[in-house]
Amino acid sequence: MPETERVSLEDVRRVAELANLELTADEAPRMRRDLNAILDYVAQLGELDTAQVQPMAQVSEILASSGPTSAQTPSATLSVLREDELRPCLDRAVVMASAPETDSVFFKVPKVIER
Amino acid sequence: MSTTTTTPAASIEAIRSSIAGGETTARALTEIYQARIAGEDNQIHAFLSTDNNYALAQAARIDALAAKGDPLPKLAGVPFGIKDVLTLEGLTATAGSKILEGYRPPYTATAVQKLADAGAIFLGKLNCDEFAMGSSNENSAYGPVHNPHDLDRVPGGSSGGSAAAVAAGMAVATLGTDTGGSIRQPASFCGVVGVLPTYGRVSRYGLIAFASSLDRIGPFAASVRDAATVLGVIAGHDIMDATSSPLPVPHYTAYLDRGVKGMKLGVPSEYFAAGLDPEVRAAIESGIDKLRAAGAEIKNISLPHTRYAIPTYYVIATAEASSNLARFDGVRYGLRAPQSDTLATMYRRTRDLGFGAEVKRRILLGTYVLSHGYYDAYYRKAQQVRRLLADDFLAAFREVDAILTPTAPTPAFKLGEKSDDPVAMYLADIYTVTASLAGICGVSVPCGQSKAGLPIGMQILGKHFDEATIFRVGHTLENL
Question: What CATH number has the domain bearing residue A7?
Fold first, then answer.
């Protein structure tokens, strides 16, 4: 990876579009500068050989081998799933009270498909 | 301008017993704290919202119990503040963001509900960096919090309001959240106790998500005993959070007075390298010496991957944030930009108006590292290094019972000092992100101060689900 120019202005605009962010003309160059500074810093991860290392996505993946009580109850540290049963949920009127625009049954949005 | 310093706050147990004994009432105590907020918080800005009637109604229920002579719950009458990323039905939850201005969530976070069930009084919601993204509280859309020890300095972040409220005596305890250091670092800067519970110890239900594999809820208080008491109330399994642990919750305060004699405490050389402020180093080394004198065996250890923690954290946390914050789209709650012709335009304008610069920066970075062609180089790589960092701790904890480090490399810095340089700001979390990535528990405990009178915190890190040990060390330290 090159030390500079990791991210171009075009990259910033492409990523902003993916993230549904609108950037002003002032914001885009500043974001480009900051992303390059951060990614230059992140580049040091490349010093480590991780070919044989399993990625870790969740803390629960390592809990079986640690913890003060894990020797007695290794499985108890793993997360558990609840029963799949019907439970009461939030009342529609309570939820719709926070909606920016609603007919009290549905959320209303601008048109989705352009003709 | 008078600066507020730590008021010796009443302890949780003293409050409960004085209400039970009729020496005071929950109402009288609530009014004292409400008056303190009215008098002090215009300078500190720890609270984003208060609801005096809500708190007084809670107090009336406690006073009714006391009048009947009924046993009082564990946190009866204790004045709390709640970080504004946690939901409490009836009060607003802004997450420090314009995109949620005025939002009233229709449900209450599990940890907050457990406090309510234990008799806590909620004075209001506390200021924080927008969506908990920041190390100084300067990213709040509603203006920064000022450090009660020096109003020109930051309180730390992102839970700056939660730390400052306790430090200024405007609450006896508060809840904050910690994703990369957001409880421990402000606790250090404000001279209070802040707890990072083990990942899974406290349900995240009702926490407005930043990075779900890292986010945790924990307490601030003036003493380790009070912080341990609060953790005992909010911890435990919850069917609303599949990552919450079913392990039983120990009676944390029962272990506090056992001391540290015979305990093995590790001191990692990597946390005392270049970049550590000399006054912080001296204060922490003095604290370590006291623990040695109290009977602990101090062992030098190594956590060799420490220097890779900040870059690892900023890849993983921003990747998760870019996904979590996609929900703020102007459809179901919060801000919606007016006069948009199409749905896509409405999304973009809403998010442009609603999000501040740091949140946009992190969403962009997270989207970038997850995007086609970069996923393996950045995101997968960071997940691999995350395991190496966690393995460092697992190996160390085979040798020692707990680990002692500075919480932050410096005391509180000045407002505006780092706000133009994201990498410099991220380095404020250099000693805290490691425990966040590994999922272990930690606590920041006051450990001296600088010549200028700024607080310094010692971070005590413990094994997964071994909060009892770090509380024991912290309680010993604060009484030496």
Answer: 1.10.20.60
Number of domains in chain A: 1
- Predicted confidence at residue B423, as pLDDT, reads 86
Q: Which amino acid is at B270?
A: E
CB contact under 8 A, A55 and B239: no
Say what the pLDDT of residue B439 is: 98
- How many whole angstroms from its chain centre is CA B422? 21
Instruction: Assess if residue A103 is contained within a domain.
Output: no
Nearest to B478 by CA among B222, B254, B272, B292: B222
pLDDT at B44: 98
Instruction: Answer yes or no: is A15 within a domain.
Output: yes
Residues 6+ apart with CB under 8 A from B248: none
| Cβ–Cβ gap A114/B342 under 8 Å | yes
Of B247, B331, B364, the CB nearest to A12: B364
Contacts of B384 in chain A (CB under 8 A): 48, 50, 53-56
- Residue A25, pLDDT > 90, answer no
Q: pLDDT averaged over chain A?
A: 84
Known catalytic residue at B414: no
Q: Can you tell me the distance from the alpha carbon of B114 to that of B95, in angstroms, rounded to the nearest whole number?
A: 20
Between strands B216-221 and B297-301, the pairing is unpaired
Q: Is B436 an active-site residue?
A: no
What does R_g of chain A's alpha carbons equal in angstroms?
A: 24
Q: How far apart are CA B63 and CA B15, in angstroms?
A: 12
Q: What string of DSSP letters covers B389-437?
A: HHHHHHHHTTT-SEEEEESSSSSPPBTTSSTT-HHHHHGGGTTTHHHHH
Q: What is the pLDDT of residue A64?
A: 66
Looking at the domain assignment, is residue A44 inside a domain? Answer: yes
Say yes or no: B398 contacts chain A, CB-CB below 8 A: no
Q: Which tokens is B290 given?
A: 């006291």
Q: What is the pLDDT of residue B421?
A: 86
What is the per-residue pLDDT across B336-385, written as a single tens digit (0 to 9) for each? 999 889 999 999 999 999 999 999 999 999 999 999 899 999 999 999 99
Q: Which residues of chain B have pLDDT under 70?
A: 1-9
CB contact under 8 A, A55 and B377: no
Does any domain span residue A20?
yes
- Across the interface, of B307, B351, B384, the residue whose CB is closest to A55 is B384
**pLDDT for position A63:** 83
- At residue A62, the pLDDT reads 87
For B329, which residue in chain A has the nearest alpha carbon? A20
Q: Which of B229, B263, B268 minimizes the C-alpha distance to B249? A: B229
A69: confidence class by pLDDT, cuts 50, 70, 90: very low
Span A61-66, average pLDDT: 72
Q: Write the pLDDT tens digit of every residue in B83-94.
A: 999 999 999 999
- CB contact set of B467 (below 8 Å; sequence gap of 6+): B195, B197, B198, B201, B228, B231, B250, B252, B441, B443
CA B320, B240, B229, B255 dihedral sign is negative
Contact of B353 with A16, CB cutoff 8 Å: no
Domain boundaries B1-480, CATH class: alpha beta
Q: Which domain holds residue A32?
A: 1-48
What's the DSSP call for residue B353? H
A85 CB contacts (<8 Å, ≥6 apart)?
none
Q: Please report residues of A whose CB lies closer than 8 A to that of B239.
A: 82
